[in-house]
Amino acid sequence: LDTGEWIRKAQAGDKDALVRLVMDKKDEYYRLAYVYLNNREDALDALQEMIVLLFRNIRKLKDPGAFYSWSKTILVNCCRSALRKRGRVVFLNDKREEAYHENYHRQELQEDLERYLKKLNRHQQEAIRLRYFLDMDYETISVITGTALGTVKSRISLGLDRLRKLLGGEYDA
Amino acid sequence: MMRKLEEILQAERRKVSELDAPPEMENALRKALSGRRRRRINKGPIAAVLVAALLVCYSFDSLAFYGKKIMGYDQVLTGSLAKLNEEGRGQKIGKSCVFSNGVEITFDGILFDENELAAFYTIRDPQGKLGNNLPAFHINGLRPMGYFQKSGHGVKTDEHNWAMMQNFEAPQFYEKWMSLEVFLAVQSSGVSLLPSTGAKP
Description:
Chain A is mostly helical.
């Protein structure tokens, strides 16, 4: 059976077909959720929420070829609402103020990246994560986040500039 | 500096690309779906109930009358009202009041179009005390002044009974509930007032 037929089955209410469709690209879905939520439990929760919404709404999907981008859009929305629920928790002890040296450890660099990403606005952060962590092209990002292509591009470039400045501030010191 | 940022992003990408879906993902998805039924909202019955509710609330009385005719008034009906009556476009009232002198006035129904409203009523005067007194009417509604009576006429069907028709100003489109007041001069005791309510759809 090809994807189109599984989609038709899923549209007829076949749960196994739907699970199969998602499991065919399980890593893609999981990574997408993980990039947003940064932990396994929350990612799985978002995926569960997503599949329930897919099940309820799959009949509205007119073009079966769009299943994957449609379902990822739904996953993105689930992740966004999970982030909203989680709220903005800022830990004060994350604010490291001490000077940094050249022999900066990679692990620390990455922690910094995460820390600085959080300083970008929500949209820039999202676009950069999708573009660089998931290697998505602009087009795909535009589709699954429901954002105009030009907006995606400018968010990424503004976000990168900001990141460079944030990082640069510390390295130059 | 540029290079540094790109390196970090690259490293992060590598990290993410090494992430695999956890083995429990499939079960988690199945669990989320188990017991779920697709909600099918059939809009047909909802629409039907709404329409029915509207009809019932808004014009129950005239629906009840629809198809019936105000019988017994053939002689007092004229012109377009007769046609309305033929079409069954009236509203049954069926309320009566008795005055202290024993005169009973019963409103059988009303008919109305955009020009006037006609109320059909019978007078029963068992003791023959009515004489030349005819009742006076006023309709109250949303319109501040209410609706004034216009001409009325009727026939005496026998010694004690009259079949009458009374015309009023046409009700405004916004009227939904109206009440009718009936005044009758009872001998020397002045005016007795008995409101009787009627509804217009």
